[in-house]
Amino acid sequence: MTTAAAIAGILWLALTAYAVLAGADFGGGVWDLLASGPRAAGQRRAVAEAMGPVWEANHVWLIFMITGLFTAFPTAFGKLALALYLPFTIAMTGIVLRGAAFAFRGHARGAVEPLSAWGVVFGSASVVTPFFLGTAAASVATGQVDSWPTPYGLLVGAFAVAICAYLAATYLVVETEGTPLEADFRRRAVGAGLASGVLGLLTLALAPALAPTLFHSLTGRGLALLVLALINGPAAAWAVWRSRPRLARLAVVAQVICVLWAWAAGQWPYLLPPTTTIDAAAAPSGTLNAMLVVVAIGMALLLPSLWLLFRVFKKAEASGPRPAA
Fold it and tell me: What's the pTM value of the predicted model, to 2 decimals?
């Protein structure tokens, strides 16, 4: 494996972490916007307490991925920045707006009143951001970076929103386990799971006609992981339906990982299919070697810090009162 390939793998790991962690935060905004029924206030409180003071830390993976791509693959970064300027700008604006709205509404304290203007901003930005990131990802995966937006990309954007909502709902089932809110979020997880499953199968069914490059990737090198995702999907739905919260959370996370890595394996060795390979887009070897050293040192500091952050705040939440019904 070349140094460029190793760095590409590290950046994809960062993308996976961002999808699994920040994706659930986006989904939490969806459920905050759609909170309803007699326990709507409790639902919003559960979302706020689950995100709490750790949601900002999840964006470290996005920042790392962007700076890493700029450093290690500058030509590819330049092409993506120009071709996908609009969806990236909208997504970044959404990230800023949802963070500001969450903070202004109380930063996880007292954010349970009937839907306010800041709540609408928070929820709406939580839908807009993964949607446009999904459309941009579809442009890369289908080899149509210069043709954004495409009908297929819009479908993938909807799938991205649904999978974020699915992640969030299963996380919240675990967070509210043993309270009446558990049933609320389990119903939402079932609905989001069905929606993401239908959209996922639809994107796969339409790929031969609308995204042949992606279809050949998924049914080539990515086939094993694609099959695993197709098998794991019903298993995750069963765990949600049968009220196995922790198993469901693990299965839904595995679903996201399988989908992302099926894409990565199928697209290999291209960074921007169908012409730009990882090695062709790489920076000089001196830059790549220096980046590996910096990443090793940085991760030695970052990973224990993130572990401590989550452990401290999740332990504090566990020792406090459970979300009210």
Answer: 0.91
